[in-house]
Every structure is written in C-alpha cells, then in structure tokens.
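Subgroup meeting minutes
Present: P.N., E.W., G.H.
Scribe: E.W.

1. P.N. recapped why we're keeping a running log of single-chain structure predictions: easier to compare across weeks, and new members can see raw inputs and outputs side by side.
2. G.H. added today's entry (83 aa).
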Amino acid sequence: MNGTYTWTVSYSRSKSGQITVTLGDQRKNSKITALPTYYGTVTTNKTANYAKLSNKHGINADDCIRGIMEYKGTTYVTKWRCP
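Output recorded in log:
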C-alpha cells in the first residue's frame, strides 16, 4: 500500500432513528501515531440507518490505518489495517 487512495469510513446501526456521527481515519507507522483526520460530520439515513464519508490522501508502504468515529464525546476505532 504505497500511494494515494480514497478511504471510506462507514457506520451502520440496527436501531431506528437518526444520529449524527463524525467519521475519519488515523494512520501510524514505526515512528509515530498521527492525530486523526476527520472527513466530516454526517447524519444517518432515516430508513437505512447508515452513513459513510470518503477522503483521498497518501499512505506510505509502512503505514497502518484504522477508521475513527466520534459520537456524543466518545471515540470509537476499528482494528489497525497494515500491509
């Protein structure tokens, strides 16, 4: 994984009703863990209870990446994805 890619972070829920979440990603390598990059804030669709945002940025061959979501002051993360 070396180059510029479009990264997509999505959120889905089983409960009905809309909620607003902030979505983004975070990268790390052997030297640093970067601050999160937030793509923006989005409200889930009323019928599908689903939201997603995408962002294009570069990643180096030794970088790992994970998804980030914030909701009501709590941060949730996915597992790291490494090459």
